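Supplementary notes for students who missed Thursday's class. We covered one full example, reproduced here. Read the sequence, then the structure, then the short commentary at the end.
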Amino acid sequence: MSDPTPPLLHDAAFLSALLDALIPAAGRGTPMPGAGAIGIESAVAETIAADAQAGPAIVAALEALRERTPGFASLAAAERAPLIEALAALDPASVRALLRHVYLAYYQHPTVLAALGEPPRPPFPEGFDIEPTDPRLLTALGRRRN
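Structure (token representation):
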């Protein structure tokens, strides 16, 4: 069985450089890592490949970027930023869809959660404390629906 994932999504160096361009590491003294430094390339690639609606457009936009700039992964961060901005100007919908995939993977990563002061775990099954509510509010809501 062949791998249906576009070859571009297997290019870890390109994806890592792209992720760091989208979410660079915070300045000195802050614990926020760049997105390319925490190893989420495969998670992002998998979700893009599985996205039947926006995935093909994201891949096409990234392939165009890589074709225009074959050495993208070896560029300095300051040189990558204008290329990403140009891509966003040419294809804003694809870049927004790409960012959605990147943000979901980034903000679920244990390192990022810990840097934000959150427990490095999913919110469930332990859950979060929720303030009790007044049950009379539910009755009022029920009356509004009728």
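Commentary. The mean pLDDT is 88. The chain is about 55% helix and 0% strand. If anything here is unclear, bring it to office hours.
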